[in-house]
Design goal:
about 290 residues
Length: about 290
Amino acid sequence: MDNLEAFVRRLERLANQHPRLEKRYVRDAQNPFDFFRDREFLQRYRFPKEAVRGPLLEMVRPHFVRNSERGLPIPPVMKLLTALRFYATSSYQVVCGDLHGISQPSVSLIVKDVSRIFARRLPEYVKVPSTAEEVAQNALQFYEVAGFPGVLGAIDGTHIMIKNPGGAHAEVYRNRKGYFSINVQVIVNSKLVIMDLVVRRPGSCHDARVFDNSSIRARLEGGQVSGILIGDSGYPCREYLFTPILRPGSRAEERYNRSHIKTRNAVERAIGVWKRRFPCLKRGLGTL
């Protein structure tokens, strides 16, 4: 009997040390905050629960508040989660809708509305350094990478795949690789933080043309922004935009190219991280 009691106590201690995981059922998935653990939630929505419940929800909630419950409106938090799931998976809208019990047309409207809300708030978070201290700190961080002085940011273009827009000018959106896209100009700092975006040009538009028609070029030429941009050979070499030397003829030019490549690598890594976190930017923006 003593041995049995000792065995039972040992089992109780083991059970306390390794508690069973709480059972979860598919029917509870309507509330992703409770159904998914923190890591699982981050994998599916690309943001932690605290960020979704906090600043992201506060950003979109005022635009979706209704004075009545007529028509069984979709709660603002569910609209936000539906849009984030679409961004994070690049799945068809009908699949995202099935996950949350929403029809495909509603998902289409939700993604459009949430995207517009985020786009309107973009200038608050995506901006180049403005004060002298910010400019100096930014240039110092770039200098520590490969010894390139006075750098404001690294610039490059990336193509975001879209469906055939149709119409008489649809072919304007076909890029040199053969698919329809939007050519997005990105400028980042040494920490891979995006400081400027241009999302207006079709896929057939060259990177240099996108830059020539951007506000950052006008601000650099007008003296409103100081510093040097680092770009690849697709951009024109100017006093505020440095490109690599195609045929270096001296050791100094070779050192310049090495420093230039290491410094410009920030924008290539940033675009890779950006598209990896939100696969809809890489795989294309699906609908049905």
